[in-house]
Amino acid sequence: MSQKANKSERILDAAEALFAVHGYDGVTMRKIASEANVDVALANYHFGRKMDVFNAVFERRSDKLNNARLEALRRCQDLAGPSGPSVEKIIEAFLRPLEIAQENTDPGWKNYLALIAYVNNSPVWGEKMMSSLFDELVQEYIEALKKALPNAKDEDIYWCYQNLSGALTLTFAQTGRIDKLSKGKCRSDDFHTAYDNMIPFIAAGFNKVCG
């Protein structure tokens, strides 16, 4: 990696961590530059406005995440054969790559997913930014769910997806709320258990509402 590219990555890493914790409005270009250990003029040179940095951070990992989830869907479809996979297998394909990302030793993935939680929960950013990067992938999964639930009304599938997205957003955010409620019996950073519970729970909801 060239020195220029390395500095760009440092700026994006710093911005990713800061945006994940403080949101867009709580971060300045000066703070990003300080965290990346570069001059603020250099950060401006590489990316321009703060909005450009925000967009670059949000887009940087999206292709890798989408590809992993699309591969997981294709794999479960191939294994299921012509009849197609069950609802639970589709939900597992949708969620397991996200668990793997959260468990990654690169802290950038946890920051990125926390940033997705922030964007997905925002009426300012959610509709435009989430749609531009993730709607095509989500629609692939919606089509698979329609095949697995042939009697379902479209609107019921989309409402169930809304509930899935909400549970996922809370898991990404790692608020620590469950830690406090359970008096330490559950931990918001116990991703394996979180997804092990979420997959059958969400699948049961789809089957109940849409079956």
Care to describe what's here?
By secondary structure, the chain is mainly α. The chain has two domains: 3-58, Homeodomain-like (Arc Repressor Mutant, subunit A), CATH 1.10.10; 61-210, Tetracycline Repressor, domain 2 (Orthogonal Bundle). It has eleven helices and no strands. It has helices at 3-22, 29-36, 40-47, 50-60, 62-80, 87-103, 107-120, 126-148, 154-173, 177-181, 191-210. Helix 1 crosses helix 7 (107-120). The longest helix has 23 residues, at 126-148. It is globular, with a radius of gyration of 19 Å. It starts with a helix and ends with a helix.
Structural class: mainly alpha
The top level CATH class name of the largest domain: Mainly Alpha
Report Rg: 19 Å
- The helix tally amounts to 11
Helical proportion, percent range = over 70%
CATH architecture of the largest domain: Orthogonal Bundle
Q: What is the third-level CATH name, the topology of the largest domain?
A: Tetracycline Repressor, domain 2
Q: N-to-C terminal Cα separation, in Å?
A: 51 Å
* Percentage of residues in strands: under 5%
* Biggest sheet descriptor: none
* CATH homologous superfamily heading of the largest domain: Tetracycline Repressor, domain 2
Which residues form runs of ≥5 with pLDDT under 50? none
Shape: globular
Average residue pLDDT? 93
Total number of β-strand segments?
0
N-to-C series of helices and strands: HHHHHHHHHHH
Q: How many discrete structural domains?
A: 2
